[in-house]
Amino acid sequence: MKTAAIATLALAALATSLIAQAGAKDPAKAGAGIPAVEYQYGMQLDVKKVLSLTDVSNVAGVVPVTMVYEDSQGRVQKVKYLELGGADDRS
User: How many domains does the chain have?
Assistant: First the structure.
């Protein structure tokens, strides 16, 4: 009986850990609580994988963008910069 209870507790702890890790990789939740760093010209970025990026396809002109990414060490980072929107501003 004690063995079954211990096994159940161990599996519950493992499941909680896996759910937390999955949430950290969820693009919708990526970067939550991480302060964004303002990009400066020449700044070296270590981007292994982009987790999320502001969609500017329907915005005209220069707009602020936030990119959340994973670096080569597996840490989630966030950077803000300006980008030219993809919409045509000629009306």
Answer: 1
